[in-house]
Design brief:
- There is one protein chain.
- The chain is α+β, with helices and mostly antiparallel strands.
- It has a domain at 107-167: ATP-grasp fold, A domain (Dna Ligase, domain 1), CATH 3.30.1490.20.
- 34% of the residues lie in helices and 14% in strands.
- The protein is built from 20 helices and 17 strands.
- The protein is globular and about 70 Å long.
- This is Tubulin polyglutamylase TTLL2.
Length: 575
């Protein structure tokens, strides 16, 4: 009977738990991959592997996460996705590290707080006889609502907190139409910072031709699909763009290549913008386990092929409004699931052994390298996926390759050893307090939980602490014996990417945490589907990602390749 129950657990599908308003494409993709939806009435509260929602999770959700579970939000990331908060963070980083490293976002002011400063800047430009345009955005609204452009201060009117930003008047145009890029970014960890950028995002067009003479024409100046789908030109055939208002990034790359524009430097700049923006909030994100987050970075490109960060979106829209959405967003969800590093043991979730021991594994999570073991989950998932020519020859990226020379326990044996270690740990604690009266036990628990007074950690103090930790890196001796026993070194990864090829050293393994989506003894994969690892890329980046030297990494990623873009500029003029 026991064997039968064990086999049922092993063969159980992965389970997802979706909250209301979760985009339909998420459910469709998970069912396509052979997952099962969580049943509140028939399953215990922890019998799920993935929980997805549009809003943030409560702190208790993060505190009670299990090794087999994933949450689609990190805590406190809204500070980067609110327009006013992002403006403050970028200003602060510019003040700490220098304006030369944070010039990728237009000058912005938060009103009414910065009204005096804004008036001074506005007056200065008027006295210099510069023709300046400004765009006003309400901080608490999204999808282009409440946005307007003005040139004269008399036209500035607001009844809530707004961000007034310098309007870019020389955007790169395609057949006269303005556009921006929706870049999808997935952060699988903030401690250390691990960032993937999706190569196949969206290009969003305005549906009427760009013209500074008509600032009130939102269809010419705003690229939000939620606005342009109401334009009379939305369904008309537009020169080079076609119907609708979207391209894929693949179409945009083909367009640039057709104009003989070398876009390698452009994408490198975009990756640096993403990384430096995330570094601005990384110190203030509480360390959590088994979380990931998808962000939508809105990037505008000007006529010199310079990218500008406009804003960062929390829970970017995943609705399928057109064929381009279907192509891009379905594959995006598939690749996100592949990023989450599910293992065959995660199908078991709470076994009877774990329930009996009441194991709390937030403090210990070991991964076991396997010899000649295939990722059954990825293979099984692949059988349920819609066929795609771009994926037919791809290897499942959720499997971490292991060197055959590694002498490690088979999966079943490893799980038994871990279960025995943890169960003994909790059983020993039960025996330790078994002979004590109940009052003594309660007293001991209260004593252990007493709060210790300590100075408040502000964001500035956290940044200063990171800068002062350069010479305090934990050495390999700090790794526990248990971690060393179960985690032999990972073989060197190879990458087929020319632009970003991670460079590592063997001594860096200990810098990864014991409990996160990435295996503790293995560096992040350089590519998973269309997701490309953009941070960390080398030993110096890894040090900064582990909270040691933010200044050093900002200086490193701020170095732009000495490459001429004159030919690119000449090609751009003919667009």
């Amino acid at each position: 009977m026991a064997d039968r129950e064990e086999n049922e657990n092993i063969s159980s599908p992965l389970v997802f738990r979706l909250h209301e308003s979760t985009p339909k494409v998420v459910r469709d993709v998970l069912l396509e991959r052979g997952w099962k939806e969580f049943d509140d009435s028939g399953q215990s509260k922890n019998e799920w592997n993935l929980q997805w929602r549009l809003s943030a999770f409560q702190s208790s959700d993060h505190d009670n996460i299990k090794p087999w579970q994933r949450l689609n939000h990190h805590p406190q990331t809204a500070q980067m996705t609110k327009k006013d908060c992002l403006t403050r963070h970028l200003k602060r980083m510019k003040g700490i590290y220098g304006s030369s490293y944070y010039e990728f976002s237009p000058v912005a002011f938060i009103l009414p707080n910065d009204y005096t400063t804004f008036i001074a800047e506005y007056t200065k430009e008027r006295s210099d006889k510069k023709t300046s345009y400004w765009i006003c955005k309400p901080t608490d609204l999204s999808r282009g609502r409440g946005i307007f452009i003005f040139q004269d201060i008399k036209d500035l009117a607001y009844d809530c907190t707004v961000v007034v930003q310098k309007y870019i008047t020389n955007p790169l145009l395609i057949s006269g139409y303005k556009f921006d890029l929706r870049i999808y970014v997935c952060v699988t960890s903030f401690h250390p910072l691990i960032v993937y950028v999706y190569k196949e995002g969206l290009v969003r067009f305005a549906t009427e031709k760009f013209n500074l003479s008509f600032l009130d024409n939102i269809f010419a100046h705003l690229t939000n699909t939620s606005i342009n789908k109401y334009s009379a030109s939305y369904n008309t055939e537009k020169e080079r763009i076609g119907r609708g208002c979207k391209w894929s990034l693949g179409q945009f790359r083909s367009y640039l290549h057709g104009k003989e524009v070398d876009d390698a430097l452009l994408w490198e700049k975009i990756y640096k913008i993403v990384t430096k923006t995330l570094l601005a909030i990384a110190p203030s994100i509480p360390p959590t386990t088994n979380c990931f987050e998808l962000f939508g970075f809105d990037i505008l490109i000007d006529d010199t092929l310079t990218p500008w960060l406009l804003e960062v979106n929390f829970s970017p829209a995943l609705s399928l409004d057109c064929s381009v959405d279907v192509t891009v967003k379905k594959e995006l969800i598939h690749d996100i699931i592949d990023l989450l590093n599910y293992k065959s043991s995660h199908c078991q979730r709470e076994t009877k052994t774990c329930k009996k021991a009441n194991m709390n594994m937030e403090s210990l999570h070991l991964s076991f390298p396997q010899k000649n073991v295939c990722n059954n989950i990825s293979q099984k998932a692949g059988e349920h996926r819609v066929g795609s020519s771009s994926r037919e020859n791809d290897k499942p990226f959720t499997l971490v390759n292991c060197n055959e020379s590694h002498h490690s326990l088979p999966l079943d044996e490893s799980e038994k050893v871990l279960s025995k270690v943890l169960c003994n740990h909790y059983n020993s604690k039960e025996q330790l307090f078994k002979h004590l009266p109940e009052s003594s036990i309660k007293k001991k628990i209260v004593t252990e939980r007493k709060t210790k007074l300590s100075p408040r950690n502000t964001l500035t103090s956290k940044l200063r602490e990171r800068l002062n930790m350069c010479h305090q890196l934990p050495g390999s001796k700090s790794i526990s014996k248990t971690h060393q026993m179960f985690n032999p070194p990972r073989p060197k990864l190879t990458s087929n990417l020319n632009l970003h090829s991670p460079s590592w050293q063997k001594s860096d393994y200990h810098k990864f945490p014991l409990y996160c989506i990435s295996d503790p003894d293995r560096r992040p994969l350089s590519q998973v589907g269309n997701f490309v690892l953009v941070f960390p890329l080398n030993d110096s980046c890894l040090g900064a990602a582990s909270g040691t030297d933010v200044k050093n990494i900002i200086q490193q990623i701020g170095k732009t390749k000495q490459k001429s873009v004159k030919d690119s500029k000449n090609s751009i003029k003919n667009m």
